[in-house]
DNA sequence: TCGGCTGATGGAATGGGGTT
DNA sequence: AACCCCATTCCATCAGCCGA
């Protein structure tokens, strides 16, 4: 299992909040030196944008998408007569972890060709948003989610990795491998969903004391290990129920619950509906 | 990174409602 | 009546927060 799978498995815990979204056009004399506290995506519509990060210079052309992570200090100018781009500022968090994406080198320039469809959806949503059409904010958020999912997918498949380096304020932020320590735990949970999993055994796998493991896990992922296990089990329970191939008793046993009652209890707590009423 | 405290959770037993 | 499923209750254990 790849560490990026957490975003898929914990998709219900992912929160994206749009802070601002607009379109700007800058003349050749434009020079901007900034460092934001949230994420920022630029969709270059016209011209070329030259971006300098940590003394290194990059060029984003028409059609490209630029992703800035928080704490990336950049200087931007245009090498063409003028440039025009749409920007969107947003926060991205998993559970209560607002900087989970810092674990990955995502900040940089994505060539338009590799993200074509997702960018098109985003631009369509932006046009709706600009005209204040009905549900346009939901459209915008949805299309941004798709765009980010695509960036994560490209990153996971090694088709993309960002080259912007953030200004490291704490040692933790400099460590892109922060999740690596608990990666074996993800694998273990994934492969042992059919049995009851104790935090103690997970801590052992991570090579930490039980108490510290819980703290570390929550700091790294934004959710507690217990919540993580429950989330995965409930995802699978939902899929198994939809398949209509198994009884509640069978599913309970497939997910490591000692009896169907405990499973029902956990299921209802999570979905607010008992498993028997979940699929009609 | 650890230990103590406390609320949360699991497991077992029991009961009730619905269905066959 | 028998069976199934879920709710409730009680008690023991565990997870996770907080302070050091």
TrEMBL record:
For this protein, the record's PROSITE patterns field holds: HTH_ARAC_FAMILY_1, HTH_ARAC_FAMILY_2
Q: Which UniProt keywords apply?
A: DNA-binding, Transcription, Transcription regulation, Transferase
InterPro entries the record matches:
AraC-bd, Homeodomain-like_sf, HTH-like, HTH_AraC, HTH_AraC-typ_CS, RmlC-like_jellyroll
- Top-level taxon of the source organism: Bacteria
Leader sequence residues: none
Domain HTH araC/xylS-type: start-end pairs: 183-280
What Gene3D superfamilies has UniProt attached to this entry?
Homeodomain-like (1.10.10.60), Jelly Rolls (2.60.120.10)
Quick check: keyword Oxidoreductase in the entry?
A: no
**Pfam families xrefs:** AraC_binding, HTH_18
A Gene Ontology MF term for this entry? transferase activity
Q: Does the keyword DNA-binding apply?
A: yes
**PANTHER family assigned to the protein according to its UniProt record, in alphabetical order:** ARAC-FAMILY TRANSCRIPTIONAL REGULATOR (PTHR43280), TRANSCRIPTIONAL REGULATORY PROTEIN (PTHR43280:SF31)
Name of the protein in question: AraC-like DNA-binding protein/cellobiose-specific phosphotransferase system component IIB
